[in-house]
TrEMBL record:
Pfam families: PilM_2. This is SHS2 domain-containing protein.
């Protein structure tokens, strides 16, 4: 596998990590740095240019050749819409149909102006499914895509920060029992995340 980048595109800073996979399955952290966006990062008007400039400086300074490299980017929670749903116990494509119906009424933007997806988090005692719905406006995706395209990166994945933090916790602390609380304090938004087994709840 080739090296790849992960970028946490927060409001006030970028957290950039370069990972280098090994043949034995080990993932090596090759480079990590927190890059300040300053006051400009809190404004949406030139955020695309600012992220591009900041990343270019980081890559040039560390002599990292990123052309053709995959980039996995995490969007800040203030740009994400997250909603938890409970659906009847159904299988396969029917889950998607139910969630799409719910998305049309729950997402505060027209569905043709957002990219949205869902993840089944678990099931209740009566068999109903606990589902997390997440949506990002197209303009957010387009901004990140433009940055990657201009730098020769391949935008492989865009996730929202609450889901990304939950997945990171589950991967690194799978053995933890009981209820855990994660507190993510950002410059614009603070996320409080509760995790217990398959159950997951977030409030921003």
């Amino acid at each position: 596998m080739k090296p790849f980048l992960t970028i946490d595109a927060g409001a006030a800073n970028l957290k950039v990590a370069l990972f280098e996979p090994r043949d034995n399955g080990i993932l090596v952290l090759g480079r990590y740095e927190v890059l300040s966006l300053g006051q400009r990062g809190l404004e949406e008007t030139d955020r695309t240019d600012l992220i591009r400039e900041t990343l270019k400086d980081f890559f040039d300074r560390n002599e990292i050749r990123v052309k053709g490299m995959d980039a996995h980017i995490c969007a800040p929670s203030y740009q994400c819409f997250t909603k938890f749903l409970r659906t009847p116990a159904v299988e396969g494509s029917k889950v998607g149909q139910i969630v799409q119906y719910e998305a049309a009424s729950q997402v505060p933007f027209p569905l043709d102006e957002v990219e949205w997806g869902f993840e089944v988090m678990g099931a209740s005692d009566n068999g109903e499914l606990d589902v997390m719905l997440m949506a990002l406006k197209d303009e957010v995706i387009e901004s990140l895509s433009t940055v990657c395209s201009d730098m020769g990166l391949r935008l492989s994945l865009v996730d929202g920060s609450p889901a990304a933090l939950r997945n990171a916790f589950m991967h690194n602390y799978a053995e933890v029992e009981g209820c855990s609380m994660l507190l993510d304090i950002g410059s614009k938004t603070t996320n409080v995340i509760f995790i217990e087994g398959d159950q997951f709840f977030v409030r921003s």
